[in-house]
Design goal:
alpha/beta
Length: 329
């Protein structure tokens, strides 16, 4: 089925975007984005369309973004509030979550390591043991079964008890300077919290800033065309210069181009992994991952504990986190 030719009329937004009052732009940022998407966004562009048309759209979009980011401090705060539904809110707690003691956090980290315990069974444990995971860790097999764990998962819990301790698991993360955010943390990403299968624990390496409240996901094929690479680099460069954080999955192809273009433009980027933070995949992007963190321009984030390999089943969950910005370019 063919696509209609995109006809983007900047004039349709000019009146809404005219300056008005002390708050700057009269248009709500969310209204602007919705109108932009209704007019076709980037999704319907075909290679045959003129690159000039794409640039025209991009420059208009980035001009609006720069205007929003150019408000006074108070106005920018209001803008961030209005932009909330369209942004990826990822904030760091310390290794010890502000809402949890180190001891409590250690049990969260340990249960998150148990094969077979996902969001549903994690919630079941919290409900059965009245949010006391230390009691769950010390429980016998009968109690664990009553809490909803399968026999295989119970065996995995028993095995982990003999090979590690909650304190040891916490020390591993502290040694590697990996920070943790859990469901109990007020800084847990609100959009991620809304879904049924939100991960109970998030691991982050690097420093997130207030600027990362306004982020867009950029994802694409691993085998991109020359045209696709050029357009991605151009789009990301202007977005990054407009103080938009770029979120992607550290994969080969478009993901790599997106992260790299953001860094080259002195912008910020977030890489969401489908593995533990100690296993960078693909291996050829280890240098890129290091650059993201060491440059101070971004962060690596994952829901998987140390040692977890990038198995095929992990990627849909990774993609769900990448797409928290609601729209992908």
């Amino acid at each position: 089925m063919g696509m209609e030719v995109l006809r983007f009329e900047p004039q349709a937004l000019v009146s809404d975007c005219s300056p008005k009052g002390s708050d700057g732009l009269a248009i709500e940022p969310t209204t602007f984005l919705r109108k932009f998407i209704q007019l076709g966004g980037f999704a319907d562009l075909q290679p045959a369309h003129s690159i000039v048309t794409l640039t025209h759209i991009l420059l208009f979009f980035c001009s609006a973004l720069k205007a929003v980011m150019g408000f006074t401090r108070d106005a920018r705060a209001k803008a961030r509030t209005r932009l909330t539904p369209w942004t990826l809110h990822l904030r760091l707690s310390s290794v010890a979550s502000p809402s949890q003691s180190l001891d409590e956090l250690a049990y969260w980290i340990t249960f998150n390591r148990v094969s077979g315990i996902g969001p549903v069974s994690f919630k079941s444990l919290l409900e059965y043991f009245d949010n006391d995971l230390q009691a769950a860790w010390q429980a016998d097999t009968k109690e664990l079964a009553q809490a909803g764990l399968t026999q295989k998962t119970i065996e995995n819990v028993i095995t982990l008890r003999t090979t590690s301790t909650p304190q040891r698991e916490l020390e591993k993360l502290e040694k590697l300077r990996i920070r943790v955010t859990t469901w109990k943390d007020k800084n847990y990403p609100p959009l991620l919290r809304e879904i049924d299968d939100s991960p109970p624990v998030l691991y982050t390496y690097g420093k997130l800033t207030e600027a990362d409240q306004f982020a867009l996901a950029v994802v694409g094929t691993r085998n991109s065309t020359t045209y696709g690479r050029q357009v991605t680099e151009r789009i990301v460069t202007d977005l990054a210069k407009g103080q938009v954080t770029i979120v992607s999955g550290l994969a080969l192809g478009i993901d790599t181009i997106a992260h790299t273009a953001a860094l080259d433009a002195d912008g910020r980027t977030i890489a969401v992994l489908a593995s533990g933070l100690d296993i960078i995949y693909p291996p050829t992007n280890r240098g890129l991952a290091r650059r993201i963190v060491e440059s101070g321009q971004g962060v690596l984030i994952t829901e998987y504990p140390l040692g977890v390999k990038p198995d095929g089943g992990n990627f849909p969950a990774r993609n769900r986190t990448v797409n928290l910005s609601r729209r992908s370019v």
